[in-house]
Amino acid sequence: MMLDTESCFVPFIGAGVSAMPPSNLPTWNGFNSLLLVSLCESLGRFSDNREPASELLTELESRREETKFFGPDFQAQLMEEEIGADYFSVWQSLETDRYGPVHAQIAELASRGRLPAVITTNFDTLLEKALTARGLPYTVLYDETSFGKFDFADPRRLALPIVKIHGSIQNTASLVDTLRQRLAGRPKALQDILDHLLKRFVWVYLGFSGRDFDADPNYLNVLSSARDSRGFVFVSRPEDGLTIGVERLAAAYGSRKSVIHIALPDVWLSTTFALPQVEVTVGGDGDRTLQIVKSRISDWLAKLEPMATINILYSMLKSIGLERDASFLMRRTWKSYRSASDIKSSSYIRYNYNYGSSLLDEGLFKNTIPLAEDLSNITEWKEAADLNAYEFLARSYRHGVLSAAGARLVCILAYRGKLAEADSLRLKIIKRALPTNSRLDLCDIVMYSAPLFDILHISQEATAELEACCEIARQLGDEIRQAELHVLLGRFLTYAGSFEAAAAALDEAEKISRRRDLKQTLLSLKAARGLWRAESGDSVQSGVRDLQETVAELQRFEDVPWLVKRDLNSGTVQRVGGSAPRLCGAWLDLNRAAMLAEDAQTFEASLAALDSLVADTYIGYRPHFYLAWAEGMLLRGGDRDETRKLIAAAREAGQQQGNPWALKMSDRLRQISDSSS
User: Fold this and answer.
1) Cα(596)–Cα(670) distance, rounded to whole angstroms?
2) What pLDDT shows up at residue 473?
3) How many CB atoms lie within 10 A of CB 139?
4) Taking a C-beta distance cutoff of 8 angstroms, is the pair 521, 484 a contact?
């Protein structure tokens, strides 16, 4: 073994140490599984068991196994986005006095002056309790302020530094648990401490799986420090083996590493450092401990509003590709589960946003029944309003001033052809958001109001805003938004003819989306890539095929109605559903690509599909439809009078909607038509 048993070293403690008896605390994955179970049980109680909570849990657990990105950190991110910083207090459910044998042995080594510091990924306070039991002083470093206390000249001059790289439950604001937090990187003050300890002391990994090195090969800069560090000892259970990341690390460290396979790390510590038998609290029943932790999680959930639980589960279902299940949960809550007290809760604002977003994604954003002046059809109107995204998003924005809800309203107004109103609302939302310094809000505003820029063909401004937001998302570690923003950036750069930059943006989106298995983003990417191939001349036919495949996949989803209503008296069945914005966009892309490919059959088919879409739902794209049709006729030498009628229709629609691009393009095509006559 490479470790000098008389020298100082730095223990690196993972979750496995606290999972040992008598502590028996759940691991990170285990804790999140308990949280998932408790969420589904909470839903069962809220719905009076009308919601099949057990089936929902089974579906979530199976999808979590199949989906790369739905790990504990992403689950945490979804919860934090729905309920804010309140999420982190659930980790206080881990509080216990039962420290384990490794904690006790670390305390023994500290009493002998062998430890300049201890590093841990754990949130719990078991190590502190073991040190307190021995009467040993220590200093917990867990946030930017406390990291500044570290003595680089001699760490031992400070009472034993316990460096908690992911924070401590003694201050929930310090916890680092979400995917976004982990990807955003560590504070410089923390990394300086870790770099200092790497260069001066051997690290001994105890109860640490090493999976963090799979997700990030240079986790904590350990890999890049291989040349200058003192080395490491990795203690692992024989049945666990080594992860790919740890094997990579071991290869880089060469002779300055040692891998120990042993069932119990406390036995290795005792043998290696001649430690006496350490008495610890006995009676650690693992099942009982898990029951206690789960009970505390349930108590924490009980303090949340029921609507918060609905919002969390909606977000989880949607993120793993169960969009329809997520939508049905929101509708059943609206129709059957909610009460007067729920309507008054703060989570109700977020609920309206989520339900409105799900309806918008289905293309349900208008009331199909006009309200009679005498209100004689108010019942029917209200029933239709329950399927109108605008109503829900407007409530969310009006009562909660939720920026993302406002941006979604901008999107709906743009689709409806109310461009001036949409632009005015967008500027108002940005003005409100800027003083709050909420950079994620700015990303959402730009991302969700992109259809307005698309309809107006304002590529330069859109590109500038999207580039800025891509950088913001990168700095914040939000890869989900980063991927979606890069798809949009690639699209607008394609519009602008900046094909090389567009390809780079789309490549970045693909890299993130494949790594995180973002299926919906990959579908949007395929459409944007198809358009790029056609416009850039890279491969027009390949672009057409990509877009045909995208349309087909979206169409298969749409062929299943969002809702089926059955009249119990007459027995008639009504299929309720809309046309998703993404399908309309894909048809527009395919129409353009088919024209460039001179594929008349596909061009005509796409026009036929778009005809009904722009007539009543996506009115903002009506000028685009007429202009595309007219341009196609000009290229094929079609009927001159018919072409001019289409150009006139495009100009009229552009005039009514206040779309300068449509007017400019109409005039341009009219000139081409006149010159060719």
Assistant:
1) 20
2) 97
3) 16
4) yes
Output the pLDDT for position 454.
97
Pairing between β-strand 257-261 and β-strand 161-164 as defined by DSSP bridges: unpaired
- Single-letter amino acid code for the residue at 79: M
% of the chain exceeding 90 in pLDDT: 78
Place of tokens 């930017």: 144
Question: What are phi and psi for residue 358, nearest 5 degrees?
Answer: -65, -35
Confidence band for 284, pLDDT divided at 50, 70 and 90: low
Nearest C-alpha neighbor of 650 from the set 634, 662, 641, 632: 662
Pair 476, 440: CB distance under 8 Å: yes
Q: What are the Cα distances from residue 84, in Å, to 63, 101, 141, 173, 240?
A: 25, 36, 24, 11, 36
**Which tokens in the block code for residue 133?**
């039991």
For 415-446, write each residue's pLDDT tens digit. 999 999 999 999 999 999 988 889 999 999 99
pLDDT tens for residues 49-89?
887 888 888 888 887 777 767 788 999 999 999 999 999 99
Q: What's the number of CA atoms in the CB half-sphere (13 Å) around residue 53?
A: 17
The 10 Å Cβ neighbour count of residue 316 is: 23
Structure tokens at 86: 């309140």
Six token digits for residue 50? 């009308």
Look at the block and give the residue holding tokens 């979206």.
Answer: 554
Report pLDDT for 276. Answer: 83
Name the H helices within 112-187: 126-133, 144-147, 179-184
Torsion of CA 326, 330, 332, 334, to 10 degrees: 180
- Taking residue 152's Cβ as centre, other Cβ atoms within 10 Å add up to 10
Asked whether 21 and 284 are in contact (CB, 8 A), the reply is yes
Task: Give the whole-angstrom CA distance, residue 270 versus residue 265.
Answer: 9
If one compares 576 and 2, the residue with the highest pLDDT of the two is 576
Instruction: Give CA–CA dist 607/584, Å, rounded.
Output: 11
Short-list 216, 260, 214, CA closest to 237? 260
> Whose structure tokens read 């680089």?
152
Q: How far is CA 481 from CA 183, 361, 441, 448, 509, in A?
A: 13, 17, 11, 11, 10
Q: Is the pLDDT of residue 128 over 70?
A: yes
Report which of 40, 92, 42, 75 is spatially closest to residue 293, judged by C-alpha positions. Answer: 92
Q: Give the residue from 439, 503, 436, 446 showing the smallest Cα distance to 475.
A: 439
Alpha carbons 535 and 570: distance in angstroms, whole number: 52
pTM: 0.93
Confidence (pLDDT) at 115: 96
* Architecture label for domain 9-25+100-273: 3-Layer(aba) Sandwich (3.40)
Average pLDDT, the chain: 92
pLDDT at 409 over 60: yes
Residue ranges in 402-498 assigned as alpha helix (H): 403-415, 419-433, 439-448, 450-456, 459-476, 479-495
- The CA angle 596-597-598, to the nearest 5 degrees, is 90
Kindly write down the DSSP assignment for every residue of 198-214, as one continuous string: HHHSEEEEES---THHH
26-56: burial string, b at 16+ Cβ within 10 Å, e else: bbbeebbbbbbbbbbbbbbebbeeebebeeb
Q: Which residues contact 252 (CB under 8 A, 6 or more apart)?
A: 223, 226
In the chain, where the domains are located = 9-25+100-273, 28-94+288-302, 346-451, 618-677
Q: Kindly give, in sequence order, each residue whose CB lies less than 8 Å from that of residue 28, ignoring residues fewer than 6 positions away.
A: 15, 72
Residue 236 identity: S
